[in-house]
Amino acid sequence: LALGQKRAEAVRRALTLVGASDAQVEAVSFGEDKPAVAGSSEDAYAKNRRVEIRYR
Fold first, then answer.
1. How high is the mean pLDDT in each 10-residue block of the chain (56 residues)?
2. Which residue, of 1, 27, 35, 47, has the fewest CB within 10 Å?
3. Is residue 21 part of a domain?
4. Distance CA 8, CA 5 (A)
């Protein structure tokens, strides 16, 4: 798995360990397809190493 997907899976596992059901949590990595910030600076890379959580 790519690093972003591994990060997403780690967050998903952590949420299920504290009580979220598998039906409520989905791990998705957008990789380089949907960066939060454009650019190739270290600051841009740091901002793109993120996990977004949407609770439904």
1. 90 95 90 91 92 81
2. 1
3. yes
4. 5
- Whether 32 is in a domain gets the answer yes
> Domain count of the chain?
1
Would you say residue 53 lies in a domain?
no
* Residue 11: closest CA among 29, 33, 23: 29
The closest of 55, 53, 51 to 8, measured between CA atoms, is 51
- Give the separation between CA 3 and CA 31, rounded to whole angstroms: 8
Residue 30 near residue 6 (C-beta atoms within 8 A): no
Cut 0.85: pTM above it = no
